[in-house]
Amino acid sequence: MSTQLVALAVLMFFATYPWRAVGLLAPGMDRLPRAALDYLQLVGPAILAALAAVNVMVVVDDAGAPRFHIGVEWVALIACLAIVRWRRNLLYGLVAAIAIVALTRAAGLAAIPT
Question: Based on CB atoms within 10 Å of each CB, which residue in 30, 68, 72, 90 is the most buried?
Fold first, then answer.
């Protein structure tokens, strides 16, 4: 593991989580239209979702060139979305997605993309 990942995690914390606190910290936020408040509350999760989507869809080959990737991660993503929509519970969807990827990789049915 690289220490660069720790720096990246700290950077992402400061890039995403303060947006979640805007409603609590900024004066007069309660006077904004409800649609604006909903939008501001979803900025942080949207940034994290965009980062996760890149990790699912794009891999970098040995030459450093990005390429589109189709693998078990897509199955896990679709299962996560379906479970979240059905059960209205993000935790269940995430646990199912992680279990799908972990079990298929442990069984040797899917490789870690490189």
Answer: 72
Sign (positive/negative) of CA torsion 46, 68, 12, 96?
positive
Residue 19 near residue 43 (C-beta atoms within 8 A): yes
What is the pLDDT at residue 79?
Answer: 93
**What's the pTM?**
0.59
Apex 81 CA angle, 12 and 50, nearest 5: 25
pLDDT along the chain (114 residues), means of 10: 76 77 71 82 76 81 86 90 89 92 92 73
Domain ranges of the chain: 1-68, 70-114
Q: How far apart are CA 22 and CA 38, in angstroms?
A: 11
- Give the C-alpha separation, 98 to 31, whole Å: 40
